[in-house]
Every structure is written in structure tokens, then in C-alpha cells.
Amino acid sequence: MIPDLVLFIILALVAVASALGMLFSRNAIYSALNLIINFGVVAVFYLLLGAPFIALAQVTVYAGAIMVLFLFVIMLLGVERLRTASSLPWQQPAALALMIILLLEAAYVIIIRPATLTNLQPLPPGFGSPSAVGLRLFDQYTLPFEITSVLLLVAMVGAIVLSKRRRKA
User: Fold this and answer.
1) Which of 21, 85, 106, 157 is deepest in the core (most CB within 10 A)?
2) Which residue segment(s) compose the domain that 6 sits in?
């Protein structure tokens, strides 16, 4: 248990440091790269929790596809420096209030009610494995899966139609 705890603490420090680096970086590309590091650390957290499929999906979808899209937009628009003058006056007090609420909730769950964290039931063997997720997805959730795929296809075709430039004949 001690090696897992040490690994968790190290990864938690890396996750917090990369999140803070993402928030406070003035360069948009460095901010996106810190977000990629954070996504990778979250994937390792999923591996520590025994969920390899979710870890792979985290790396593939977020650290792969979404971040490539973010970096492409950053490079395309040429926004190397983040603008600070365009912030609204109410944003900083609202962010501080939400941070205080989040810290109070976390303190309540961790310090005042830790008994709920210890009464968790063990997961059945094979829970969260790719085969179990695939069986559940294509057995019980076939219709929502197909509806989602049709919606994504329609959105893709709509994006192509909207972005297509009209040619003069």
C-alpha cells in the first residue's frame, strides 16, 4: 500500500502543478501542453483505480484528439499570448467564491464525513475491463449508442456543408 500511496502523492503533485501551470501560463501553447500533462496524469490515476479502458479512452480522446484540435486552433489563429485586459470585473470575485465553496465541500467530504469513503463495496472482478464495457455498451445501450453515432454523423456533415465555400462559376 505504501508504494501506491507514494505514487499517488507524486502524481497528485504533478497534476496540481500542471493545472496551475495551465492556468497561469501567458503563452497559449504552453497552457495547452500543461493540459496534456494533466490529462496524462489523470489517465494514470484511472490505471491505479483499476480502470484500463477509461485510462485508454482518456489518453485517446482527450490527450490525443481534443488537444490536437486545441493546438491546431491556437496555431491557426496565431494567439501566442493570452489577453488579460478583456476580463470582466465580476469574474475574479466569482471565481474566488466558487473556489471557497469547492474547498469547503472537499473539507466536508474528507474531514467531517470520512466514513462514507470507507464503506465502499469491492468491485466485481473484470469490472471496467474493455470486454465488460463493450458487452454492456452493445447489449444494454445499443439504441443510445446508435443514436449518438447518427447525431455525430449529422454534425460532421453539417460542419462540412457550413464550411464549404461557394465557388463562382
Assistant:
1) 21
2) 1-81
pLDDT of residue 10: 93
- Most distant CA pair in the chain, distance: 72
CA 44 to mean position of chain CA atoms: 13
pLDDT tens digit sequence for 127-166: 777 888 888 888 899 999 899 889 988 988 887 787 776 6
Locate 36 and state its grid cell.
496534456
59 within some domain: yes
Taking the C-alpha atoms of residue 2 and residue 11, their distance in angstroms, rounded to an integer, is 14
Residue 34 in any domain: the answer is: yes
Q: Which residues pair with 81 in a beta bridge?
A: 27
